[in-house]
Prior knowledge:
alpha+beta, 5-stranded mixed sheet, two-stranded antiparallel ribbon
Amino acid sequence: MTYRVGVGEDLHRVDDSRTLVLGGVIIEEGPGLAGHSDADVLLHAITDAVLGAAALGDIGQHFPPSDPRFADADSADFLRAALRLAREGGWELVNVDTTVRTERPKLATYVPHIRARIASIAGVADDAVSVKAKSGEGLDAVGRGEAMAATAVVLLTR
């Protein structure tokens, strides 16, 4: 068997006028995030990790923010498309490990639902998805509550 690891990162500004979508889950207590699509920082990071592991470029190449077709798009569709492209190259997702950096909202109560949603989108078992949350400790844009960031690592096998 052959394995490949991919890393994805994303960062979005906070936008209180939008609804927060994180890992495909709507979180009413927000704040929302600015972006061309639904601005799901977590699914964007996972999508980039899948594309990177399969050597297929990055999310901006496949779903450019300049393209009006992707305005307010569901980021779950981006992840599904990336996984489809990876499968066409003979790759299958083994697992995904993620970290979300945010000051608000606190994510502990949402993590099980986010994990289940990502697993459902990706077609893997819940225990193949890890979601962790960290605060910014008052440092940088995340710590000041101005942005939310996510990092994802995926393992693909062929």
